[in-house]
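Researcher: I'd like a candidate sequence for this fold, 524 residues long. If you have to choose between options at a position, lean toward the conservative one.
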């Protein structure tokens, strides 16, 4: 019997998951085509002079037992001596911790998953606030009596008179937090991310990302945290935005996907880098082959296959598709909008701000949401706190300032020197650093990082319906589906697509149901 082949576009979490699933569960050989030379897509790790950057920040946490176990089969959990961490899988409790003598030690072993504490905060009014917002004594004292009164009254108003038929993100926020809290802690950052006023952004974004979080749940979580804290990684009943622990590869998210790519090759698959897919050839209801160009040589190569997985931006897929794509469908594809992303990495002797430090003069945050309208930076990561092994010299502070934009905006066109100066000057403006403490800097630009829920997205169903009719094509991952998926959601779309191939299922609705089902949204 002829061995079947699957051509997979993209070596991000979805593409590499599909490849490994095919190799371990079927006789189908995967061939992964990656445009860049990195593994992991936006979940890659960038190495700058030995200091590593996590582009966008990637927690390894999932409500899916399947994903949690999958990750640990690639990178085993670090040994823990004092706390047991349990994961329930298929009805069985499994101990995540291993005895100290047997488990990998991060100081000696590289192939290891760390257990990390989640510490994000909001920087607003030039002060740090816990995220998610807790109306505790610290928050109340920082906000002041007048502002906290306005927050309380506006929240009560939203409870008594909620906006019916939420149509935009502003209404979504107000219904859950009240107008005053929304303006204080959500409005500025969200508008930086999407480049639009919140009243012009679909409420679907909130349902996708914030899900069931509200003041009531945040307060309930705060009480449970104080009087009944859990130490298990599972955290099944916890809202995603409230997760306190997560797993993290020693050298950042890219390490996970580099390991997966190695396994794919070891098991007989192919991972080819530097290949840009420019055309897909279809006959009837199926794709027969695709054409990719090798960026280094200019060679055009045709790849024939039985199954095709696409994680490339669906706008680009529609352009490359050699089929009778109706004009109305192409119009929707062309109208899709993506937000782009710039990270400025700064190596510092120290920070000038130490509010809520961990006893050594360092901030303990993984990331900080910048809710300040007078600066352009949207978020700051402190890479030391994701993993101490991301930094070559632990005496230094290694941070990333994140800017959200469109490729057509002037900020995208700025030189690296201009971007570094912008980042440094904004940190000085917020009294976070002194210029003399800047040791080194780099700039990373990532196009099409965030698929947006505006533009032609309201008509996205036309595009989905058209490509779902292509029997052997599976759209998976964030850009493949134009959906703001987390890493685990992207993996689950790949796993589900492979499930369908094994089962002979033609209907693809279960792939699109990932991260939309109420149960997965933690609704109880």
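Model: Candidate sequence:
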């Amino acid at each position: 019997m002829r061995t079947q082949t699957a051509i997979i576009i993209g070596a991000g979490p979805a593409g590499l998951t599909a490849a490994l699933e095919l190799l371990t569960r079927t006789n189908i050989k995967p061939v992964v085509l990656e445009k860049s030379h990195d593994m992991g897509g936006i979940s890659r790790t960038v190495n700058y002079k030995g200091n590593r950057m996590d582009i966008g920040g990637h927690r390894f946490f999932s409500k899916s037992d399947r994903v949690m176990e999958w990750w640990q089969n690639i990178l085993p959990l670090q040994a823990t001596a004092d706390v047991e961490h349990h994961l329930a899988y298929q009805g069985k409790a499994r101990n995540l911790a291993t005895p100290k003598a047997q488990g990998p030690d991060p100081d000696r072993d590289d192939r290891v998953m760390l257990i990390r504490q989640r510490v994000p905060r909001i920087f607003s009014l030039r002060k740090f606030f816990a995220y998610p917002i807790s109306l505790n004594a610290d928050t109340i004292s920082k906000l002041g009596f007048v502002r906290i009164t306005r927050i309380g009254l506006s929240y009560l108003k939203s409870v008594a008179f909620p906006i019916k038929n939420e149509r935009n993100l502003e209404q979504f926020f107000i219904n859950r937090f009240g107008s005053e809290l929304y303006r204080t802690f959500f409005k500025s950052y969200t508008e930086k991310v999407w480049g639009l006023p919140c009243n012009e952004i679909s409420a679907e974004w909130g349902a996708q990302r914030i899900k069931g979080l509200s003041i009531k749940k945040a307060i309930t979580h705060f009480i449970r945290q104080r009087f009944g804290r859990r130490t298990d990684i599972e955290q099944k009943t916890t809202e995603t935005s409230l997760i306190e622990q997560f797993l993290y590869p020693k050298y950042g998210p890219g390490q996970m996907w580099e390991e997966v790519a190695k396994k794919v090759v070891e098991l007989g698959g192919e991972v080819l880098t530097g290949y840009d897919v420019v055309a897909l050839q279809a006959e009837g209801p199926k794709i027969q082959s695709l054409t990719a160009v090798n960026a280094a040589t200019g060679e055009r190569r045709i790849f024939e296959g039985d199954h095709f997985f696409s994680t490339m931006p669906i706008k680009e897929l529609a352009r490359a598709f050699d089929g009778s794509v109706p004009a109305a469908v192409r119009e929707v594809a062309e109208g899709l909008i993506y937000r782009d992303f710039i990270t400025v990495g700064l190596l510092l002797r120290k920070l000038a701000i130490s509010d809520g430090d961990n006893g050594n003069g360092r901030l303990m945050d993984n990331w900080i949401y910048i809710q300040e309208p007078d600066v352009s930076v949207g978020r700051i990561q402190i890479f030391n706190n994701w993993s101490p092994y991301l930094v070559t010299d632990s005496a230094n502070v290694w941070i990333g300032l994140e800017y959200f934009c469109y490729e057509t905006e002037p900020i995208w066109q700025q030189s690296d020197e201009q971007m570094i100066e912008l980042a440094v000057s904004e940190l000085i403006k917020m009294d976070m650093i002194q210029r003399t403490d800047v040791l080194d800097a780099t700039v990373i630009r990532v196009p099409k990082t965030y698929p947006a829920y505006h533009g032609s997205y309201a008509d996205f169903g036309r595009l989905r319906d058209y490509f779902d009719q292509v029997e052997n094509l599976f759209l998976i991952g964030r850009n493949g589906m134009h959906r703001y998926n987390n890493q685990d959601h992207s993996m689950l779309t790949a796993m589900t697509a492979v499930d369908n191939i094994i089962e002979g299922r033609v209907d693809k609705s279960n792939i699109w149901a990932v991260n939309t089902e109420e149960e997965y949204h933690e609704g109880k």
